[in-house]
Amino acid sequence: MDYDPIPTVVPAEPLDVEADTTNLRAAMKGFGTDEQTIIDIITARSNAQRQLIKENFLREYGRDLIDDLKSELGGKFEDAIIALMMPPVKYLCTQLHRAMAGMGTNESTLVEILCTKSNEEMVEIVKCYEDMYDRPLAEHMCSETSGHFRRLLTLIVTGVRDPVGAVDAQKAVEQAQQLYSAGEAKLGTDEEVFNRILAHGSFAQLRLVFDDYKQLSGQTIEQAIKHEMSGELHEAMMAIVPYLDSIETKGVLGYSVHRADKLRRGGGSALYVRNYLNTQLCTKSNPGGPVEYVFVEVSAADTKLLVGCVYRLNNRTDTKIFSLSLNLSLLLTQTLWLLGTSTLTFYRTRA
């Protein structure tokens, strides 16, 4: 199946555009700014509703709502509010242009936007980009990238991906074999084969290919890509992979999930990490244990980060938590992020 996004911001019902317009104007009129009113209105409306409010604001006051917001806000708060006020496709095009403007290129932005889009979404982005900047997206992107990374993005931008839901089980078996032959089965890597398959297949088709690949090679496609690719191409391909193949659970597009499941009622603990980052499971709780936890080492360049998620029921003693902290003190890491309901003391050790 293809990735089916579930929105966390839904349309406000009932919507009172007149009231929202009046309240936003009042929040920015005169001395000072009522930031809380701006937050309460803009973050609780769908994007389509924000566009209605923006149009009504112009009709009622002859003023551009975005210009007023820019004049009243600042810093990251301004960036977030202005981003929320833009139609999604225009926001994506703005970020693409910013990633390629001036000296240097932010390849991570190109990857995050382009590599996770269906063919239908790409058609919309390509049209909007040329309308906004009077320059074809493919031309601009090609001038800022190179090598196999550029060829992969070019395939995606030019809209070669199969339609949503298009699947062919027999073809998936053949494509899995092609990927294996182009990577693990030979010395070196044929990047063009990876580019062709990952750029052409629908996300539903790729899921079949990845399942067949695991049966053929004994490795997940994520493991194969980490072994065979590097740099921007590795990052791009890891962003294309829709789900973590080794986990039989609903995934989140663009993320790998590490879970510590429960046998009893409840979902256990889980960490979602952007799947172009290098991750390694360090330790996790046993199913049904009194303390639920999962710890993953995330590495980039010369930095290692230990990320942990811990949950402890209120009627459990701190002895279990202390035992866990002793085990984790054996892990070598530079920085720790801990999420959950327990506070632990960790001891830095030498390798």
From TrEMBL:
Domain of life: Eukaryota
Keyword Ligase part of the UniProt annotation: no
Chain coiled-coil ranges: none
Alphabetically ordered keywords of this record: Annexin, Calcium, Calcium/phospholipid-binding, Repeat
Name of one Pfam family that matches: Annexin
Keyword Repeat: yes
PROSITE patterns: ANNEXIN_1, ANNEXIN_2
InterPro entries for the chain: Annexin, Annexin_repeat, Annexin_repeat_CS, Annexin_sf
An annotated GO cellular component: vesicle membrane
One Gene Ontology molecular-function label: calcium-dependent phospholipid binding
Family the UniProt entry places it in: Belongs to the annexin family.
Domain-level remarks: A pair of annexin repeats may form one binding site for calcium and phospholipid.
Protein name (database record): Annexin
Gene name for this UniProt entry: 106095758
